[in-house]
């Protein structure tokens, strides 16, 4: 394996698993949806450029997944990821199905009076509620894909992911060929993958057959039924989980030097935005943490390569939080032991998500170590002192500074003086003294370094 370069397809496929996490899907959902969609593209004899756009649209179809997480959690009073997971198997264009879903998902386990009040509040929102949630997700997703700068058709496909052939979809109610072809492929590919993964091959055929002409383009359904008639396709699908397995399906492959930040940085920024959008309390947190981490390496006199690595580690450090319920992230009071345990899984998940990117191993290690502490009281590996990656020690100081300096649901933002006082008490016991000293010197002597420019 070449550890000095990075396949763009492998990079995006790897990061697509973070989107699976947010949607409550098993890791690899987007990868398998991509494989199904690329088979359909091949069956339709799409050209190379269209298949290239389709490839990235399929992997990034859920880029807007976090945009409505807070609303889903707040409206339904439940884990946003489980609510999204259950919705995927519901024919929500039918009122009776939508009502059953709302009743089942709203405040499960709460007293019936409380549940009925919440259900009534959702009912008062009417069909506009579904339109709002889909529009937030699809519009934000399209905008983020567009920000990457090297795709042109993919954003429109993501925007129209939830439109239906008969006009019953969201958010614009497009019908038939008004829906871009790539968007129609995305819709079918993700649905059959989900029904296959939950219920098996026949369910994947049945859902396409039953929604032919309502949700799905009849021509695409016919192509799917033809290619899936042989169970060999599902055997191949079951073996497909890892990012490098799908990378070869990009018809215009691109290899990036591992330090090509001109391409890598915008991708990291997009995924940082996805993380920070999940909760209003962490808006721009990843970008600020990354900026602070880079500023700290500059003050410490580290070489440019380490400065850029700190920037990327800061952008990626909370990637695993996409797997944490908004009921926890937005909770205004103290966390229960179970909730604390759940949130403490996020650094390990960050590492799991980044691990396949061998050329970025140092960045993955540093990002995942941002909650480790010198005395071993941190998590998730409970590392001590010099065993904590240096990059992790830098991101840890940057992360603590930003968390204290900005409001959280359980407390106000703190002044620079208060932040430094709290952090100073942890100097040498929990936080690197050298890195803390760099932060203190910078805040007191060059505060402009700690004002993010983007």
TrEMBL record:
InterPro entries: Cyclic_di-GMP/3'3'-cGAMP_PDE, HD/PDEase_dom, HD_GYP_dom. Residues 4-240, 260-454 form the HD-GYP domain. It comes from the Bacteria. Gene3D superfamilies: Hypothetical protein af1432 (1.10.3210.10). CDD domains: HDc. This is Metal dependent phosphohydrolase. It comes from Sulfobacillus acidophilus (strain ATCC 700253 / DSM 10332 / NAL).
